[in-house]
Amino acid sequence: MVVVFADGRLVAFRALLVPGADEEHLGSDVGLDLTELGSVVYQEISTVSPRYRGYRLQKIMADMLMEQLKVADYKYVCATVAPFNIASLKDKFSQQMEIAALKKKYGGVLRYVFMKHLHKEGVEWQVEQFIPMQDTKAQQKLLEEGWRGTGISGSPDGWLVRYCK
Fold first, then answer.
1. Is residue 17 included in any domain, yes or no?
2. What's the CATH number where 46 sits?
3. What is the tally of structural domains in the chain?
4. What gap in Å lies between CA 26 and CA 80, rounded to an integer?
5. Does 151 reside within a domain?
6. β-strands 109-117, 76-81: how paired?
7. Which tens digit of pLDDT belongs to each residue from 3-43?
């Protein structure tokens, strides 16, 4: 966990979680083998006081934790984000995390499942396409075919998710 204090008060925190082995494990959602689930850590939560938003605290805390993970015994970091939670989506993409699944989690709530291999450099993608964020079925089809979500962009018609392969 990383915490930020200002004026003697807690104003932000970001936490990681070492998950237990269960049927909801995010590693299983992104196609990891059962033997690799112990090498997964989750980005669990980030919170910044409204008074301190705009100072890039979420990014600073993410950078600090990702640096610590580089020397830890974990191979993968995973997280979930709700579609249309633009700030959290941008946060995950800024850390070079990729959408590896889009499915219902936590009792039936739709979530992007992000993953990053901590000890591999980024991939050079050959092709890309943009899918409207609201087109869940098209995104799920691409993910099943091995595509990865690598970014978002705004358009006059709404948000688009960039998928690469």
1. yes
2. 3.40.630.30
3. 1
4. 8
5. no
6. antiparallel
7. 999 999 999 999 999 998 788 899 999 999 999 999 999 99
**Cβ–Cβ contacts within 10 Å for residue 15, how many?**
15
Structure tokens at 133: 């964020």
61: closest CA among 15, 9, 6, 114?
15
pLDDT band at 71 (very low <50, low <70, confident <90, very high): confident
Q: How far apart are CA 105 and CA 124, in angstroms?
A: 30
Confirm whether 130 is domain-assigned: no
Query: Contact 78/42 with Cβ under 8 angstroms?
Result: yes
**35: amino acid identity, one letter:** T
Cα dihedral angle (162, 134, 140, 20), rounded to 10 degrees?
Answer: 90
Is 145 inside any structural domain? Answer: no
Angle, vertex CA 80, rays to CA 77 and CA 83, nearest 5 = 140
| Beta carbons within 8 Å of 57's beta carbon, 6+ residues apart | 4, 11, 12, 48
Residue 87 lies in domain: 2-123
Helix (H, G, I), strand (E, B) or coil at 87: helix
- Phi, psi at residue 66, to the nearest 5°? -65, -35
